[in-house]
Amino acid sequence: MKKAVLSVIALSLAITAAAQQDKKPIKPVDFYRIPSVSDPQLSPDGKWVAYSVSTIDTAKDKRVSHLWMQSWDGKESLKLTHGDEAASTPRWSPDGKYLAFLSSRDSKDGSQLWLIDRRGGEGAKVTSVKGSLTEYAWSPDSKKLVLVIGDPENKGKPAPGTPKPIVIDRYHFKQDIEGYLQQLHDHLYLLDVSTKKLDTLTSGEKDENSPVWSPDSKTIAFVSNRTVDPDKNSNKDIFTIDARPNAAMLQLTTWKGRDSNPQWSPDGRYISYLRSTSDADYMMYDQNLLCIMDAVGSNSRILTQQLDRPVVGQFWSKDNKNLAFLVVDDRQRYVANINVNNGKISTVSKGVYSITDINTNSSGNWVVAKTDPYTPTELFALEGDKLRQLTFHNQDWLSTVKLAQVSGFQSKSADGTNVSDILFTPDSIPGKKWPFILFIHGGPVGQDEYAFDATRQILAGAGYAVAGVNYRGSNGRGLDFCKAIYADWGNKEVKDLLGAVDQLEKMGIADPNRLGIGGWSYGGILTDYTIASDTRFKAAASGAGSGLQLSVYGSDQYVLQYENEIGVPWKSADKWLQISYPFFHADRIKTPVLFMSGLKDFNVPTIGSEQMYQALRSQNIPTELILYPNQFHGITKPSYQVDRLQRYVDWYNKYLNQSTLSK
Fold first, then answer.
1. Of 119, 124, 57, which is closest to residue 86 (Cα–Cα)?
2. Is 514 left (phi over 0), alpha (psi -120 to 50) or beta?
3. Which DSSP string corresponds to 496-533?
4. Which of 155, 179, 284, 486 has the fewest beta carbons closer than 10 A?
């Protein structure tokens, strides 16, 4: 018997070893296979979770989202929508009879509201609006919905054969994806479910968003900037309005900063919301505080001041006494709870992972979206402080690839600042020295978390050690850490980035003779700053970046930040020249650089990459400029996303002598 048991164990180990050998390092083309799971919504009885799954259709070269349902007991999984047109934003009617969603199927005017009758039958389109339908919410009695609809272009009429000239008369006049901004606004509308009648709730020259119903279905809270010129500040306040046409608004908050995400308590007595820390006209380096007030706006108080961490989203428990919310902490994003009566904050679920969404309702069940360094987002039941996995959409493709080893490490910058970082290595062999890529996150207000990172995993799969560095300006380390780079770009961040490289060299992980650097957005900007400060890098990939910051004033969407943080160029030229040092010190750059940009990018326009490309080309530094047609700041066409990843690998291989590892 003992010999038989040993034989079984040996066979099991052999099968496991063979399975590991069959796994191949993850490559750019594997990106096509990664589904995206998001937006979990619990049914009123708590027995089902509706959610979205987007996958890539390689033949049509696009990502398409469809709706799924997962039973709470984990035994049944159903795909609800099919076809070429996407379906998203599932929301249950409170009586459980319908599941609503947004889709552009059978529509020439963009997304419309659809209903699936849970008692049987196919989905039915219930709106035919001309403007952009972006948000909606059910009334608690399930009789009405509030919709957020943007004013239609051309007043809802067909576009003329010869487009009219674009007339610009706004301070903030351009925005990525939206393009040139005209006087079009988002407003609230009421839809009667039984009659399909659509009534206007708000109108005018302001925007209204984020509507939520009071528990008695009589009142709607929403968010709006009602200042004289909303373009010139980031103010947002919370208002309420009765759910009937021609009703008057009541302003609940008066903070000069940003109030957002109102949520009624189940008994209707309170509204919780998020508030910015700063009341400046614009502050990039900020974090949300969780607050509560009476339903009429009185007795407002801050609940999470002592955390000194950003709060993301919040949900009331059904007892009206507690709020659950997400906390953005050092490389983590976790669930916390606060008792609104005594202010006690407790951690609910925290680990070497990131929880990106949370949902609950009167059923008392809780569902979260969770990711970790080895698994893209999946849905989990949160039962007490325990997590139980509900969905497994990534299981099949993950079983075929070998992922990098991921670990956290700390580094110290030249000025003594302690910085938190994440390291990816092709394997866990101790003491092995690797060619290295410093891949920088954007923002700057964001952070590298213990979450699945396809880009860094693919670079590690090509044979590189890869690091993400939460430089000053990142969130998750407190407000002072985030604000440290105010009006001083490319200084402290570069110290932090180089400090992490120094640390990895000392640890014997990064080969000092084979160092690469890269990033997208502010990561691309910091790539330009870093290679103009230090010549040790042998290859760089600067995506959607800029080096001549003076030239982007008026060409991108950040005029409000520039004028509040840096000042107007004609009064603060010295400061603008200081933060433009990558361009004016381009003669110090010796690193071969791959520049990349989406041609419709109004966030960091292509001119930023073109100018740096030209500066290096004029000095005969090896460089290429890759331009993606019809793409905005975020590259969304799947073939372009894979192309970008492959170009990263090829460029680093070319200059870091890694061509043999990519085969």
1. 57
2. beta
3. HHHHHHHHHHHTT-EEEEEEEEEEETHHHHHHHHHHTT
4. 155
Per residue in 190-249, pLDDT (tens digit) is: 999 999 999 999 999 999 999 999 999 999 999 999 999 999 999 999 999 999 999 999
Q: What are phi and psi of 523, to 5 degrees?
A: -65, -35
Q: Which DSSP helix (H) or strand (E) runs through 333?
A: strand 332-339
Residue 348 in contact with residue 354, Cβ under 8 Å? no
Residues 6+ apart with CB under 8 A from 328: 287, 309, 310, 311, 312, 447, 475, 476
Strand partners, 389: 380
pLDDT tens per residue across span 504-514? 999 999 999 99
Q: At what angle do helices 607-617 and 522-531 cross, to 10 degrees?
A: 20
Element (H, E) at 623: strand 623-628
- In this prediction, residue 311 carries a pLDDT of 97
Residue 3 has pLDDT above 50, yes or no: no
**Alpha carbon distance 594, 606 (integer Å):** 13
Cα separation, 28 vs 88, in Å, equals 27
Q: Which helix (H) or strand (E) holds 21?
A: helix 2-22
Q: Which residues contact 91 (CB under 8 A, 6 or more apart)?
A: 41, 99, 100, 101, 136, 137, 138
Could you give the count of Cα atoms lying within 13 Å of 146 in the half-sphere of its Cβ? 28
For 433-472, the DSSP string reads -EEEEEEE--SSS----SS--HHHHHHHHTT-EEEEE--B
Terminal-to-terminal C-alpha distance of the chain: 47
21 pLDDT band, cuts 50/70/90, is low
pTM of the model: 0.92
Which residues, in sequence order, are bridge partners of residue 534?
Answer: none
Q: Is the bond into 165 cis (omega within 30 degrees of 0)? A: no
Question: Residue 57 and residue 637: Cα distance in Å, rounded?
Answer: 11
Query: Cβ-count burial of 122 within 10 angstroms (0-12 exposed, 13-18 middle, 19+ buried)?
Result: exposed
Q: Which residue has the tokens 């079984």?
A: 8
Classify each residue of 292-306 as buried b or exposed e, where b means 16 or more C-beta atoms within 10 Å of its C-beta.
bbebebeebeebbee
For residues 273, 274, 275, 276, the Cα torsion angle rounded to the nearest 10 degrees is -170
